[in-house]
Each structure stands twice: as C-alpha cells, then as structure tokens.
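The instructor's notes for this session suggest beginning with a concrete chain rather than abstract definitions. Hand out the sequence below and ask the class to guess, before any prediction is shown, which regions might be ordered.
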Amino acid sequence: MADKNRRKEVEVLLEVLRQPGHSVPVQELTEYLRLVRDLHMRDSENVTTYGGQNLQKLAAALTEEELWLVYEQVAIAALDTRAMELAVSLVQKIRKKFPSSSRTYRLTSLYLEACGDNAKLLEFHKQILEDDENNEAILKRQVVLEKSKGNLSGAIELLRRYVDIYMLDREAWEELGELYLEASLYQQAAHCYEELLLHVPSNIAYYVQYADIMYTIGGTHAANHRADVIASDYRTAQSYYAAAVRMSEGHNTRALYGLCASTSQLSGLKGRNAQMQDSANVANLVAQTLIRRYSEECDGLVPYVKDLIRTHNLIMK
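After discussion, reveal the predicted structure:
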C-alpha cells in the first residue's frame, strides 16, 4: 500500500513538471527523481527529458553525493531512450570521477550494449574479470546479457556461480529462483526460496512462493512416487501456506487458496483415512473464510468463488 501511494506521488509530481509555460521547479524534480530511484521504476523517457534538460539546476541544488546518483540515473535513462550524446557525456563524467568503481563498470557495460558492440563488450568484461574475477557489477551484467539472448541455461549457470560468491544478495536469489521456475526446475527453485526465508524470515511473499513451489512438486510427483512422498510435499506446502495466513492475519488471499487446495490434496490421498476428516474440516473452514472475505469486500464475485471452490473440490463433504 505504501508503494502504491508513492507511485501516485510520482504521477502528481509529473503533472507539475509537465505544466506548459513554466520552468521546471527543482524541488519537485528532485523529489520525482528520488521516488523513481527508491521505487526502482523504469521511467526512462521522463527521467531523460526532465532530468537531462535540467542538470545545471540540479547541480546547484543537490549535495554532491545525490548529484552523482542523479547523473547515473539520467545516464541509464538516456541509454534506454537512445539519447546517446547525453549518455556519453554523463558516462564520461562518472568515469572521470570514479574510474574503478562498480557504477563505472556497469555504465560502461550498458553503453557498449546500447551501441551493439559485442566484441568490445566481451573484451571489456574479460579485462575487468582478469583483474577481479569476482567483480560484482560485471558478473551481474553477464547474467543480464545471457537472459537477453534467450540463453536460460547460461543465465542460470552464471547466476548460480554468482550466489556462491555473494550469498547474501537477496535479489540474486530471487532472480535465480525465477529462472529455475521458468526452466521447470522446481527442486532447485525451492532451494532458492529456502535461502531467502533464512535471509528474511518475516517476508510473507516468500512463504507463499515456497508453498506454491512445494505444491507444484507434489503434483509432479503424483504420477511416479509413493503416497507418503507426495503427502510430504503437500504437507510442507500446507504448513507454509498456514504460516502466511497467520502472519497476514488471514488477509493474504493467495495463501488462503493455497491452504485450501493443499489440504484438499492431502484429504484425497489414499491410505490417509485417519487424517481425512481433519483435512476436510480445515479445507471447509478455509473455503468458508474465502467466501466470507469476498462477501465483505467484493460481493459480486462470490458466485464465481463458490464455483471455483466446487470445481476444484476445495470443499469436502
């Protein structure tokens, strides 16, 4: 909700910047650029237009530290929008100030990519890695390049090596998990989310995603594994969905659906008659909670939710 409100602030600030017949107000421009950075928004056209045309004003108003952040921000946006003259001037300025920094390596790599000069790009990466084989910026750019070429297995291998070195890089673990899911490598994806849960045990989204993966693994095991193996996968999914429901105080709809579905799957496994009634009761309770939530918040969707629950046998009789 907080990010949603801040994105609305971005739109309000853009309206101010777009007003015709007035010079761009530096205070609003500064706040706009800060919000775009903080929210990791890709708004290259506006950043290039308003940031690039008002660099002198910004230089007079900002601290030196923030000014270099803005230079980098505008340079990346200029490369995105092919405003190459502006991009080159800023990249050169940053290279002069920070000749051996990760931001310079990253910007140089982005510039060579934008120019389409693959030979120089590969040579640049090679030179940097010869001096520093674990250079974080270059290793990350190599992953991006493999993804851009559609080389999923290559991107996975490079990112796997990267997290072996930078084990605390949460974004890298998230990306590796997504790549494994794209490649249908569910066990490996599960491992990534186990790592993420160790890093941030309070992140509800990680609980739900891990539960989704374990539920999927249970489905893939259904054809050729024993019932106890399948049940173990669904029980793990059930426990993590339940944790997400508790942590969100029942407000995470995806976790509620997942808890309902995993409980239903456990109820349907043969050889588990002793647990079937308990599982059925849980599934019914969660399904009724979902229906009540939709009744309170979006009553028109209740018939569709009921149909969905019945279609997928999420309510046991």
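Then share the key points. The chain has 17 helices and no strands. Residues 202-317 form one domain.
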